């Protein structure tokens, strides 16, 4: 990319939005995961998010520390029957949902309503 003198003399101005935070779909998915974790006890089934729930390392780490693992689609064959899996706001494919159902997973579909 070639920079013209005007680019240097008139640098881009960044304006921060008044309202910051998660979009509605991500907020809903995080709340679903938080609710699932809050009900966890020693006899609870394994809890997963299908892929990273959010693009925020500190939130992912907090969920991990409280017992929620990130499940890669390739690892679905290894989960136990009864495992609980939160589908992130971006959703997933029908094939992946079918694989989870065949494994006997409890699916918490937090797909954003605007994605459907």
Quick tags:
116 residues; alpha/beta; Rossmann fold; four-stranded parallel beta sheet; 4 strands
Describe the overall structure.
The chain has helices at about 5-10, 25-40, 55-65, 95-100; strands at about 45-50, 70, 85, 105-110. The protein is of the alpha/beta class and about 120 residues long. It has one domain: Rossmann fold (3-Layer(aba) Sandwich). The longest helix has 15 residues, at about 25-40. The mean pLDDT is about 90.
Brief digest:
The protein is an alpha/beta fold and 116 residues long. The protein has helices spanning 5-9, 24-38, 57-65, 94-102, and strands at residues 47-50, 68-71, 84-87, 106-109. It contains 4 helices and 4 strands.
| CATH topology name | Rossmann fold
How many whole angstroms does the radius of gyration measure?
A: 19 Å
Uncertain runs: none
How many alpha or pi helices? 4
- What spatial form do the alpha-carbon principal axes imply? elongated
State the name of the first-level CATH class.
Alpha Beta
Strand content: 5-15%
- Spatial gap, N to C terminus: 38 Å
H and E order: HHEHEEHE
**Strand runs, count:** 4
Sequence of strands across the biggest β-sheet: 2-1-3-4
Class from secondary-structure proportions = alpha/beta
Q: Largest sheet, described in full?
A: 4 strands, parallel
Provide the CATH architecture: 3-Layer(aba) Sandwich
